[in-house]
From TrEMBL, chain A:
GO terms for molecular function: iron ion binding; oxidoreductase activity. InterPro entries: Ald_Oxase/Xan_DH_a/b (IPR000674), Ald_Oxase/Xan_DH_a/b_sf (IPR036856), Ald_Oxase/xanthine_DH-like (IPR016208), AldOxase/xan_DH_MoCoBD1 (IPR008274), AldOxase/xan_DH_MoCoBD2 (IPR046867), AldOxase/xan_DH_Mopterin-bd_sf (IPR037165). Pfam families: Ald_Xan_dh_C, MoCoBD_1, MoCoBD_2. This is Xanthine dehydrogenase family protein molybdopterin-binding subunit. It comes from Chitinophaga eiseniae.
From TrEMBL, chain B:
Keywords: 2Fe-2S, Iron, Iron-sulfur, Metal-binding, Oxidoreductase. Pfam families: Fer2, Fer2_2. It comes from Chitinophaga eiseniae. Residues 57-133 form the 2Fe-2S ferredoxin-type domain. One of its GO terms (molecular function) is 2 iron, 2 sulfur cluster binding. CDD domains: fer2. This is 2Fe-2S iron-sulfur cluster binding domain-containing protein. Residues 1-21 are annotated as: Disordered. InterPro entries: 2Fe-2S-bd, 2Fe-2S-bd_dom_sf, 2Fe-2S_ferredoxin-like_sf, 2Fe-2S_ferredoxin-type, 2Fe2S_fd_BS, Aldehyde_Oxdr_Iron-Sulfur, Beta-grasp_dom_sf, TAT_signal. It comes from the Bacteria.
Length: 739, 211
């Protein structure tokens, strides 16, 4: 038996392109006669455009056009909705301004510098109205829609009757995805009803679908290219107004138009993790058995769309607790619409839940890890179903051992080294293990190479690499002879890369299509090659690009088989999706994070010293890229815990730190050595590979591990992210008092 | 040069750039008048073309070993010149403000943010971009180490990380993982591949080919 390719730390198949500058991201394409666009954005946060003067801009050198609601080509799809319906921002439909930074015009010129300069010459007058950007001040406007109904099992607010209780408010500021690649698009109408797009997207098919709905042109007339995406973390899960604006400008001037937005505009045009306020209340018996949890969350949304995510989802099933009730509400503000940001709502919810469990553990005088194990949910208490696989306890054990949990002194502020306060904290995370529907084509050529095609995306995890490994295992073809092609709307359907589901969804289709291909080859051999006449497809051995009879007496290579039959290629297409197993089992991935922190007693600066993250994500397809995903999630989690916070000046409804110098994402020196471990046990039900998702759980729960470690180090509980030094400053005064 | 520093050279009320543009537009109109029939003058496009000639400056650069005589607007950054006019798109724009390092290139062997310098300021300099790092098909050891250690995910910051890493090694700032973390902190990686980037650089530093 050959060593399987899955489970190996194979180098990325597109690594060479990425290290040589050969990987083409959307903005790297340069169609002939391409024009450049720049946006003019609203400087008010609520009101209407009174007038737009474009005279100066149009007179500037090289300017082709200035497009706004006054002269934009019609978007047929807008007519299906009424203004005021919550259908998102319909760019250039009318003169309404809903948020600061909303695009009011797009300027097109023959160089980028000319477009940017001309945009500064567009003069816009507004009729300003009162805006609201402060969630706390807008709580009276909180509402629920039918996607966010209250949940309860058992008795409502049962925690109140418990002998030991904890109740507290946790807040998370607005965070911005901020992938390195700036958003934008290249749009080119090659005929009045034929559109080519180079896009930054997590799903070319969904872009195609959106454009088809809006512009009412045939699907096959819309070509979307998106082979390389410079990170997204959720912000490229939809088509944004800036992309429609560019498509409209391109329609008007009938040339390819490229728009790349600025880092500042990344804060207002492509979504964000909404700021939120959560109240968690929980009660337990004196020996630590949870009796009730109440979780109430409020988050913000835009005036024109209800954005919802799984903030309270984890609370419903994470612990074996008989009484749980949750409530989730939205406050509409003069802001653009949020979008799922890595770990989406669960990352938000887990900060509150996993901090609260930690707080309760100190009240109970039970080790926080022990308290979690004590309340471990062996079956899903929300759906009353068994888990398809759950190795959370193993993950706890691995993590505790590797960080040295047992050697910590459980008392807060009891440990010091090198003049620093030392703290250990831990937390857990979970996210649904999904499997969608995807189609993959397999083309085996007479030179023995296999090409797989699917309209999947790769925003960084290494999709093509994992797919090649899966295909190699099924077919017995060497990985260097297999190519997986993605990011083209002309390929068979695959869903967006989101919700940690790509390996599960597209990998299953790869597995299925490869099995179908082998069957096709087997039938060809059985019908055409005498030595194979007496056998069946099931009995044939598939190894090293050959078909081998069960007695190993006869072999034929794929090349020989196709060449004998004068076939240039064999092509098979298969569609794959899950079945009834999802109704019988609850499917989740789990993660455990342990952090060791140093807190400087005089300044309150927190430095993370060591991280151990453990994932129960089923069978790991590529241990190298999977580890990279985990450390990436941890780095995102460090930002969430310690540095990231987009700050609004509510007087103007405008961000004050909308750049990388002031909105601090972690840099290299902010990150400690990170140890990643995988339980690496197959999930028997979810898909042929036995793999669950990884991208979200890498981050979910992490911020709480840091917050819990900071409490252990200092005795100060920070419930308001990020944990900046100012929030720990009173340790300085206590330090002086004890000195 | 000293004249520019005199207080009297501070422009009056009108924006300096705008005044200059007005002048150029007028002067180019005068030129056009001398060169072309009046009808052509009416075509704004023609005026723009002439204006463009006036607005450009010559600059000589050696890019990836190739000597180039170029004519660029003074306001064009080195980054935008490389990407938009020379089709060297390996160098990336992440912020345009020198805050992220995605646009890192070497100028005379030193790493700089190409978004923070104007192309015309680099007269006579040798520029190396990610496209010029490998020796034909033979990758630079840092490029190989990045593949081996998976020093990236999406790959967008990678050209800048690699150019920075090569310089970091040359500068003698790769003595320890801690030193590398400090001297590579001008290059943001939002995918969070830092641990792998440090391992890749350490690997090259130690001359090893181990995984």
């Amino acid at each position: 038996m050959k060593k399987p390719q899955t489970g190996q730390p194979m180098d990325r198949v597109d690594g060479r392109l990425k290290v040589t500058g050969g990987a083409k991201y959307f903005a790297d394409h340069q169609p002939a006669d391409m024009q450049f666009a720049a946006l003019v954005c609203s400087t008010i946060s609520c009101g209407a455009i009174a007038s737009i003067s474009t005279t100066k801009a149009l007179r500037a050198p090289g300017v082709a056009d200035v497009v706004s609601h006054l002269n934009a080509p019609p978007v047929p799809g807008y007519k299906k909705t009424n203004p005021g319906d919550k259908n998102g921002l319909q760019i250039f439909r009318d003169n309404r301004i809903y948020s600061n930074g909303q695009p009011v015009a797009i300027v097109v010129a023959n160089t980028m510098e000319r477009a940017v300069y001309a945009a500064s010459l567009v003069e816009v007058q507004y009729n300003q109205e009162t805006h609201y950007t402060n969630m706390e001040a807008g709580m009276d406007k909180a509402f629920q829609n039918n996607r966010m109904k209250d949940y309860s099992r058992g008795e409502i607010n049962a925690w109140q009757k418990a002998p030991v209780t904890h109740s507290a408010q946790y807040t998370i500021p607005l965070e911005v995805h901020n992938p390195m690649e700036l958003a934008g698009i290249i749009a080119h109408w090659t005929s009045p009803d034929t559109l080519t797009l180079y896009a930054k997207t997590q799903g070319v098919k969904s872009v195609q679908e959106t454009i088809q709905e809006l512009f009412e042109i045939p699907e096959q007339n819309i070509t979307v290219h998106s082979r390389f995406v410079g990170g997204a973390f959720g912000m490229a899960l939809r088509v944004w107004p800036l992309e429609i604006a560019t498509i409209l400008a391109a329609k008007k001037i009938r040339k390819p138009v490229k728009l790349v937005i600025t880092r500042e505009q990344m804060f207002t045009l492509v979504g964000y993790r909404p700021n939120s306020s959560q109240k968690i209340s929980m009660g337990a018996t004196a020996d630590g058995k949870l009796t009730g949890i109440t979780h109430e969350a409020v988050a913000i949304t835009s005036p024109y769309e209800d954005f919802t995510e799984g903030i309270v989802a984890m609370t419903k099933f994470m612990y074996d607790c008989p009484n749980v009730n949750t409530r989730y509400q939205l406050v509409p503000l003069n802001m653009s619409t949020p979008i799922w940001m890595r770990g989406p709502g669960e990352a938000t919810g887990s900060f509150a839940l996993e901090s609260a469990i930690d707080e309760l553990s100190y009240k109970l005088k039970i080790d926080p890890l022990q308290l979690r194990i004590l309340n471990h949910a062996d079956t899903d208490p929300e759906r009353n179903l068994p888990f398809s696989s759950k190795y959370l306890k193993e993950a706890y054990q691995i993590g505790a051992e590797k960080i040295g949990w047992s050697s910590r002194n459980p008392a807060p502020r009891s440990m010091q080294e090198n003049g620093m306060l030392v703290g250990y904290g831990m937390s857990s995370g979970t996210f649904g293990a999904y499997r969608g529907k995807a189609t993959v084509s397999a083309i085996l050529k007479s030179d023995g190479t296999l090409t797989l095609q699917s309209a999947a995306a790769d925003i960084g995890p290494g999709t093509a690499t994992a797919m090649v490994q899966i295909a190699a295992d099924v077919t017995g073809i060497s990985p260097d002879k297999i190519t997986f092609m993605l990011g083209e709307s002309t390929f068979p359907y695959a869903p967006e890369q989101g919700g940690s589901a790509t390996v599960s969804t597209v990998g299953s289709a790869v597995s299925d299509v490869c099995h179908a291909l082998l069957k096709e080859l087997a039938n060809l051999a059985i019908s055409q090659v005498p030595a194979f006449k007496q056998t069946t497809p099931e009995l044939i051995i598939y190894e090293d690009g050959q078909l081998i009879t069960a007695d190993r007496q006869t072999k034929i290579t794929h090349e020989a088989l196709l060449q004998q039959q004068k076939l240039p290629e064999v092509k098979v297409t298969a569609t794959s999706q899950g079945g009834e197993e999802r109704k019988k089992y609850s499917m989740y991935s789990f993660s455990v994070h342990f952090a060791k922190v140093h807190v400087h007693p005089a300044t309150g600066v927190v430095r993370i010293q060591h991280i151990v993250s453990v994932a129960d994500a089923g069978a790991i397809v590529n241990t190298k890229t999977a580890r990279s995903q985990m450390i990436g999630g941890v780095v995102g989690g460090i930002g969430m815990a310690l540095t990231e916070e987009a700050i609004l000046d509510h007087r103007f409804g405008r961000f004050v730190n909308n750049n990388y110098a002031d909105y601090h994402v972690p840099v290299n020196a902010d990150t400690p050595p990170t140890d990643v471990y995988f339980v690496n046990k197959k999930d028997p039900y979810i898909n042929p590979m036995g793999s669950k998702g990884l991208g979200e759980i890498a981050l979910i729960g992490f911020a709480a591990a840091v917050s819990n470690a900071v409490f252990h180090a200092t005795g100060i509980r920070v419930r308001d992210l990020p944990i900046t030094p100012d929030k720990l400053l009173h340790i300085v005064s206590t330090e002086n008092a004890t000195a | 040069m000293p004249q520019e520093n005199k207080p009297s050279s501070v422009p009056p009320k009108k924006d300096k750039q705008e005044a200059r543009r007005d002048f150029l537009k007028q002067s180019s109109a005068v030129m056009a008048l001398a060169l072309a029939p009046p009808l052509v003058l009416k075509a704004a496009q023609h005026d723009e073309a002439i204006a463009a000639v006036f607005e450009k400056m010559p600059v000589n650069l050696e890019i990836n070993g190739k000597k180039m005589q170029l004519s660029v607007e003074p306001r064009v950054t080195l980054l935008d010149l490389l990407r938009e006019q020379l089709a060297l798109t390996g160098t990336k724009k992440g912020c345009d403000h020198g805050q992220c390092g995605a646009c890192t290139v070497h100028v005379n062997g030193q790493r700089i943010n190409s978004c923070l310098t104007l192309a015309v300021m680099q007269e006579g300099k040798k520029i190396t971009t990610i496209e010029g790092l490998s020796n034909g098909d033979q990758l630079h050891p840092v490029q190989e180490a990045f593949i081996r250690h998976d020093g990236f995910q999406c790959g967008y910051c990678t050209p800048g990380q690699i150019m920075s890493a090569v310089a970091c090694l040359h500068e003698g700032h790769a003595g320890s993982p801690e030193q590398i973390r400090e001297f590579m902190s001008g290059n943001i990686c939002r995918c969070g591949a830092y641990d792998n980037i440090v391992n890749a650089i350490m690997d090259v530093k130690n001359g090893g080919q181990t995984a």
